[in-house]
Design a protein that fits this description.
The protein is α/β, with parallel strands linked by helices and about 500 residues long. It folds into two domains: about 5-415, Alkaline Phosphatase, subunit A (3-Layer(aba) Sandwich), CATH 3.40.720; about 430-490, Arylsulfatase, C-terminal domain (2-Layer Sandwich), CATH 3.30.1120. The chain contains 16 helices and 18 strands. Strands 5-4-8-1-9-12-2-13 form an eight-stranded mixed beta sheet, sandwiched between helices. It has a four-stranded antiparallel beta sheet with strand order 15-16-17-18, covered by helices on one side. Strand 17 and strand 18 (about 450-455) form a beta hairpin. Bound molecules: calcium ion. Calcium ion (CA) binds near residues 73 and 113.
């Protein structure tokens, strides 16, 4: 693809990013939500320093759960200390996992920001919610059935902070809205601070100023560790996080061996493919790989610290043990694996995300467990809506996660799912794909290239060998082709 076409594409994305930043700048100058002094006084009186644990119903005053949903951007499942990463520094998320539930096999149904964020909000696949391009918003009716819409209608005080990502957010959809993204350093009210620091400050402001007589829902949608695509250095962390990486050496995965690039279909290994373009931005020398990976990890460390402060605030306010907290990434990421960068394609690196839940209903004996069921981004909305005892909308395609950790005998769970990704710009840049993903096999179709792939994940967990032409796999292939067509229909 030509360089000029590529520049046009970037410009379009830039325009959207700027548009989504601008409203927030207005909101921060004119958007006092509650008179801060009065609210702080009320809060101090009402909280009184005692723990606000949900009453068991003994005196009939059981309090509804509060909810906090934390979404990081482009953080893959293993960029997390608790997942075994020895280089990254994520003490608060690790503690969060050690006292909550970590889902070790969490995935997305579409590996790109706007679509996955729409799936997190709605609990629906792209085929149903229809968010298949940048700048496209949910309709008001669709929003009413998101976890935000449902909880606001149920009397929750709702806040959304950071990267909305699904078109421009509508002011009236939230009680408190601070939307911004796209850059790592943002000037606001004469102050130039890191986007994660703004996320942190805005979250604490929401928690400090919320009304005391309403349950609350806070969504914090971090922009980090997403790259600042137009910046030559890509990842622009704060100074303080460098202290945790002074001697860091990021090991290279076996997937960065050239053989994995060679094993890609030609349309993915071609230099016009966006995964290759961005590989050259970030990873095409050993020195660049180290520098960019460390800076990516530092951005995650900064998100981790902000989450630590949010959790500390919930504890200080005495509401942590009455608040459901969900942490998830919006998509996985290629760290130079297969000679690629970023996401989009249905290889494991691009699909798997961190997912951790703190649920006050979880007995202490079960805190710190892991579950390896195939959980999805579309499970967040039904989990939140069910936890606050509201009716889960019929259009939701995900499942409430809570039975997996609350039930003595966890229910049966999905062992396969449908993956879909739209074309971005054209088939050369980012082609569309659909797939059926099981624990043992993965079958992928690239409709624009009339190409398909079959991987035996038991024999070939790194997805190197395409078995579509292998006679021994023809019956599996026939089954999976039928299954894919069936799942594609059902996803609508
Ligand atoms: Ca993302």
């Amino acid at each position: 693809m030509s360089r000029s076409l590529y520049l046009v594409v970037l410009s379009a994305v830039t325009a959207i990013s700027v548009a989504s930043i601008s409203p927030s700048l207005a909101q921060t100058t004119g958007g006092a939500v509650v008179a801060p002094d009065a609210a702080a006084t009320l809060a101090a009186v009402a909280r009184g320093g005692c723990d606000d644990v949900a009453d068991d119903g003994q005196n009939g005053t059981k309090k509804p759960l509060n909810v906090v949903v934390l979404v990081s951007d482009d953080q893959r499942w293993d960029s997390l200390g608790a997942a075994g990463n020895k280089v990254i520094h994520t003490p608060h998320l690790d503690e969060f996992a050690a006292t909550g539930v970590r889902f070790t096999n969490a995935r997305v149904t579409t590996s790109i920001c706007m679509t996955s964020r729409a799936s997190i909000l709605t609990g629906q696949m792209m085929s149903r919610h229809g968010i298949d391009r940048f700048g496209k918003p949910l309709t008001p009716d669709q929003f009413a059935d998101t976890y935000h819409g449902r909880l606001k209608a149920a009397g929750y005080w709702t806040g959304f902070i950071g990267k909305y990502g699904v078109g421009a957010p509508r002011r009236d959809d939230f009680d408190f809205l601070r939307a911004y993204e796209g850059r790592h350093w943002i000037e606001r009210d004469g102050q130039r601070l890191h986007v994660t620091e703004w996320n942190r400050r805005d979250s604490l402001e929401f928690l400090d100023n919320r009304p005391d007589d309403q349950p609350f829902l806070l969504s914090v949608s971090f922009f980090a560790p997403h790259a600042e695509d137009r910046a030559p250095e890509q990842y622009l962390p704060q100074d303080w996080s460098a202290q945790h990486y002074t001697d860091a050496v990021v090991p290279r995965s076996i997937l960065t061996d050239d053989a994995y690039l060679q094993a890609l279909p030609a349309f993915l290994s071609d230099e016009s493919n966006e995964g290759r373009v961005r590989y050259h931005w970030r990873f095409d020398t050993p020195e660049k790989y180290q520098r960019y990976m460390v800076n990516y990890f530092r951005l995650i460390t900064e998100v981790d610290a902000a989450i630590g402060d949010i959790v500390a605030k919930l504890k200080a306010q005495g509401v942590y043990e009455n608040t459901l907290v969900v942490f998830i990434g919006d998509n996985g990421y290629f760290h130079a694996d297969r000679g690629l960068a970023d996401k989009w394609y249905p290889y494991e690196e691009s699909l798997r995300v961190p997912l951790i839940v703190h649920d006050p209903r979880l007995p202490s004996s079960r805190r710190g467990i892991t579950r390896d069921e195939m959980t999805l981004n579309i499970d967040v909305a039904p989990t939140v809506i069910a936890a606050v005892e509201q009716a889960v909308p019929a259009a939701i395609q995900g499942n409430d996660l809570a039975p997996l950790y609350l039930d003595e005998t966890p229910p049966g769970w999905r062992d396969e799912y449908f993956y879909e990704h739209p074309t971005i710009t054209n088939r050369e840049r980012i082609p569309s794909s659909i797939a059926v993903i099981r624990r043992d096999f993965k079958y992928v179709q690239w409709p624009e290239w009339d190409h398909d792939q079959l991987f035996d994940l038991t024999e070939d967990p790194t997805e190197k060998t395409n078995l579509v032409g292998d006679a021994a796999y023809q019956s599996v292939l026939t089954d999976l082709r039928a299954k894919l067509a069936e799942m594609q229909q059902a996803a609508r």
